Amino acid sequence: MNASTQWQKSSFSGGGGENCVEIAREGNGVLIRESDAPGTVIATDRAKLAAFIQGVKAGEFDHLLT
């Protein structure tokens, strides 16, 4: 991560900024952080993130929200 890292948040996060997960592309990988804890960053690769997103879309993690 460097000063020019371009973070993006979901439009579903709301306008306040306190409820946001942000994501950025870094080289061949992807960085993920929470807006209220920007110093804690998770790094992964695009294939792993794509698999996770497929699981989210399929509802595999819905039980964590109830």
What's the SSE blueprint?
Elements: E1 8-9, E2 21-26, E3 29-34, E4 37-45, H1 46-57
Top keywords for this entry?
66 residues, alpha+beta, 4 strands
Written account of the structure:
The chain is of the alpha+beta class and about 70 residues long. The chain has one domain (about 10-60). The chain is built from one helix and four strands, in the order ββββα. A four-stranded antiparallel β-sheet has the order 1-2-3-4. The longest helix is centred in the last third of the chain and has 12 residues, at about 45-55.
Q: In a few lines, what is going on in this structure?
A:
The protein is α+β, with helices and mostly antiparallel strands and 66 residues long. The chain has one helix spanning 46-57; strands spanning 8-9, 21-26, 29-34, 37-45.
What structural class should be given to the helix and strand makeup? alpha+beta
Determine the N-to-C terminus distance: 34 Å
Assign a percent range to the helix content: 10-25%
Q: Mind summarizing the main beta sheet?
A: 4 strands, antiparallel
Strand content of the residues, in percent? Answer: 25-35%
Q: How many strand units?
A: 4
* Average predicted local confidence, pLDDT: 90
Low-confidence segments, given as residue ranges, are none
Number of contiguous helices: 1
The coarse overall form would be: globular
Rg calculated over all Cα atoms = 13 Å
Number of structural units classed as domains? 1
